[in-house]
Amino acid sequence: MTIRVLVADDQTLVRTGFRLVLDAEPGITVISEAADGEAAVRLARQLRPDVTLMDIRMPKLDGLRATELLAGPGVEDPLRVLVVTTYDVDENVYAALLAGACGFLLKDARPRLLVEAVHAAVRGEALVSPAVTVRLLAHFTGAGGRAKPATPLTGRELDVVLAVGRGSTNAEIAARLRVSLSTVKSHLANAQDKIGARNRTETAIWAWRNGLLR
Q: Which residues carry this modification: 4-aspartylphosphate (predicted)?
């Protein structure tokens, strides 16, 4: 199955670079490009790509609002949006994650990491640039106070949530806990249902907000 990608960025050179990297990867194809936020939302809704690469600062409609319209709370059939930005400490990045982005990369990330991030997004395993993972999630530590789930997490569910908060993939978690991949997915799904998280990024944010990963 070919992974279909939409690239949204106001810089022609950036879009061309992403297209060259992704189109050269077997099983991935760039189906369209958007130079502004309005076009990104329109094309994403029309073409339903598997992953949309979204810049933050774009004309007409910024990437934050575009992400919210495609993947935010209340969207019936949300799309997978991966934010790719230059601003690793910009408050807009935090807002993008809260708006529904499944993760983010810096534009200077190596090509292999971009490919891995696209694959991870399709699997539901959001990938965040290693250089900013801890600093990004630490921003949420203590923000909004503690939020205990109505139904407590089991020990294994908590183990999986902590591992997700540290950036581990399902395969890595399965190997560490010595359980099957399907068991990890089941624990994660149950935990996310209990804490009200829609994706791995929100799961990690929940762990940091509750002081579990300081």
A: 55
